[in-house]
């Protein structure tokens, strides 16, 4: 089943492929999307997203998707998320807090959705990143 997500067929699912796969899978309901996001952000899988985890993922996403037009730094965005949806203020986001908070907050929902909408990256992966092929065709044989 993983093969589907291994776009460049190197036998591994790297982070970018994982995210790309998510964005393909996630054409469905918001709630389902958020569950996937939560899993993605909960790096150590303990059922809560802490500040470090959120920050790590946001940075990683920004690194591969720099065109996300946010004016906030990753730190600022993380702070914003926690101040808005960490309802009980324990510094961790439970699945409940995350699901409810994000669904109630259009700005966060937009930002999360947009940052993980990696359609262009998916396309690039599926095309096998042909950049490196470079000048393959013709033109070079002009020796006399
Ligand atoms: Ca791969
Ligand atoms: Ca965690
Ligand atoms: Ca909390």
Automatic annotation (TrEMBL):
Keyword Metal-binding listed: yes
UniProt-listed Gene3D superfamilies: EF-hand
A single BP term in Gene Ontology: visual perception
SMART domains in the record: EFh
Domain EF-hand per the UniProt entry, residue ranges: 1-28, 29-64, 73-108
Source species, domain of life: Eukaryota
Keywords, in A-Z order: Calcium, Lipoprotein, Metal-binding, Myristate, Repeat, Sensory transduction, Vision
A GO term for molecular function: calcium sensitive guanylate cyclase activator activity
One GO location term (cellular component): photoreceptor inner segment
Identification of the protein by name: Guanylyl cyclase-activating protein 1
């Amino acid at each position: 089943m993983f093969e589907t997500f291994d776009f460049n067929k190197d036998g591994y699912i790297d982070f970018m492929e994982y995210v790309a796969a998510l964005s393909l899978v996630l054409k469905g309901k918001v709630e389902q999307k958020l569950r996937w996001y939560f899993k993605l952000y909960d790096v150590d899988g303990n059922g809560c997203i802490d500040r470090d985890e959120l920050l790590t993922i946001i940075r990683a996403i920004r690194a591969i998707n720099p065109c996300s037009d946010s004016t906030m730094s990753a730190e600022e965005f993380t702070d914003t998320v926690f101040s808005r949806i960490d309802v009980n203020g324990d510094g961790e986001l439970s699945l409940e807090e995350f699901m409810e908070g994000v669904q109630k907050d259009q700005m966060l929902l937009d930002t999360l959705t947009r940052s993980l909408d990696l359609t262009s990256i998916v396309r690039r992966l599926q095309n096998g990143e042909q950049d490196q092929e470079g000048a393959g065709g013709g033109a070079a044989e002009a020796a006399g």
